[in-house]
Structure prediction request, 683 residues.
Amino acid sequence: MKKRLLSFSMAVCMVCLMAMTSCSAAEIPAASSGVDMDSAKLKSETRTVSTFSDVPAGAWYAEAVNYCQQNGIMSGTSSTTFSPEATLTRAMLATMLHHMSGTPAVSDAPVFTDAVAGSWYSDAVSWAAKNGVISGYGGGTFGVNDPTTREQAVTILWRCAGEPEITATADISDLSSISSWARAAVYWANANGLLDGMMENSRFDPKETIKRGEVASMLYHYLSNDANSHPELPAGGKLLVAYFSATGTTRTVAEKLAETTGGDLFEIVPAQPYTSADLNYNTDCRANAEQNDPSARPAIANTVENMGQYDTVLIGYPIWWGRAPKIIHTFLEAYDLSGKTVATFCTSGGSGHEDATLHDYEPNANWLEGRRFTGGTDRNTLEEWISALDLPEPSPAVAAAASAASKADFNFDTKRVTLNSGYEMPINGLGTYSLHGETCVSSVKSALASGVRLIDTASAYGNEEEVGQAVREAIEELGLKREDIFVITKIYPGSEMANPEQSIQACLDRLDLGYVDMMLLHHPDQNDVNAYRAMEKFVEDGKIRSLGLSNWYVEELEEFLPQVSITPALVQNEIHPYYQENDVIPYIQDLGIVVQGWYPLGGRGHTAELLGDEVISGIATAHGVSSAQVILRWNLQKGVVVIPGSSNPDHIKENTELYDFTLTDGDMARINALDRNEKHDWY
Ligand code: NAP
Prediction:
């Protein structure tokens, strides 16, 4: 959808420029039934401007109101009034966008129970929903009379523009109150002048209802802004695999399907998780009660961001008493899948088949035949099902974007991964936290002699000079080149991030290696964005090659990423079998960012328990390796780079011997099951 609408902005933009340059103030083009894309018609039809008594000539939005009226995008609320202070309903916004798009005819579009047939907005609402411009609420309603907030309006317009990426930073003082799903849109709008006149003291007030005068101004700036003339991209089919999994069986199938199709993965997370007692079907359990209650709609804790972008949705669920769990009904009621291709897959070890009653929720979707799978279904079987479905082809643009942002693959032959910065990084290294003085120098040299080519240090560890010295000596003694060794360092919150240029240069000086391969922000901080931007300048100067973050999780990344120009190449977070970050890792990897784990062996003080864990030592015995090697290999097989710390040359060497054995799916699953969400440090 977002691609299809791009054309209107360019056409209208041309129209408005012609109108503005070729007409006198008293003679302006008429477009009584919306903006006509035929510029010749606009040029030949003119009429006198009507002035609105409630739009003073000097009002900041006056020119915009005139413009929108002249081009048939907005009309008055009466023949003499525009009501610039009145709030904008969803039906009004749909109508404006429909007009801007040339008021295309609507067929086979969803009909909403709260939209009056034949009313001024009915076609626009159907058009907006059909094209994913504004989705209905589910349950057959559109919310025609509901007011639109500022962040909603901006996001809708941004979608129409093709969701352009914006890297410039917006000067917005109430950034934290903007919903994460709206931030990119607000940055874009601000950077392109769409919010001019709307920001008092740099405040956006995202949750305020948007007023008609403000919308006129926003649309005026949008349509007369060259920055919105984006090249048209081919339409294509983006795919979402949405699933609910109570015990992990459906998750396994969903993950494989997402990999097979290149689609996005969305887990439907119940607001109240299901315990094993809830699922004990032989008792009067919660699952049974819900399945027997037609009105049960268990709440969902999360939402699909921008469902409008997907053309195909695969929905997965376990079979409960022959039917889909009621949470799937909640999901279908929450979204409008009209016009999309939809298929379900269900999981059950025995009998059962897809729950066709679900089709009733989305009568306007193109339902394809669903399938039942067992938990252990192999990839070939899934691929066969997908091929037989004959899904819409992804467009080249969508496929290219997907591959650019796809998880960076580890090469187990070269023991390296290619970062999004274009540089290669080894996937196992040495951590130097708590190594100092001569111990640090000898440990780093011992690691380099054992074949380690990745060293992790930080300003806060107080050992950058020793690390630099060890690297320089090893280059000399082992005949290595500087480019063979990948050194990571970090700058710390507080005074270092408050004076980033100085701190970055100090790291470079202490290491004294010419350049640093990667620099991370050690933790989030009030000055982190500025500090990162300073690091970006050092990248431009060639003194740093790649950038990254440490101790950044999903929310922090959502807030941070839109504000910087260079996407981080790496995020370094605590990861070990007792603290697995299973939600965070795939999120980061899906952004094309490599994940690196600190405290891979649990960290000092915790290694004995982890290395002695029965499951881990059992797997180690079976493979004839050590517990440490099992843990490090488990990380690598999850796509997590490892940097174990050690001052013991035997351990250092042992920690490099990770490539002559492979953990089975069963081994991986058993280690995955050890997660306790047990952090071993505060950050
Ligand atoms: P770790 O790697 O989980 O554990 C280090 C401990 O494991 C040491 O006591 C070491 O003792 C022992 N060990 C290492 N290899 C072993 C083996 N093969 N068998 C038995 N014991 C072994 O903890 P860490 O060093 O604290 O963390 C790793 C690195 O992550 C740090 O060095 C640092 O670079 C980084 N880090 C980053 C952050 C951050 O905020 N970004 C925070 C913490 C750590 P021996 O010396 O006796 O081998």
Q: What stands out?
A: The longest strand covers residues 312-318. Residues 1-49, 226-236, 394-406 have pLDDT under 50 and may be disordered. The CA atoms of residues 89 and 147 lie 4 Å apart.
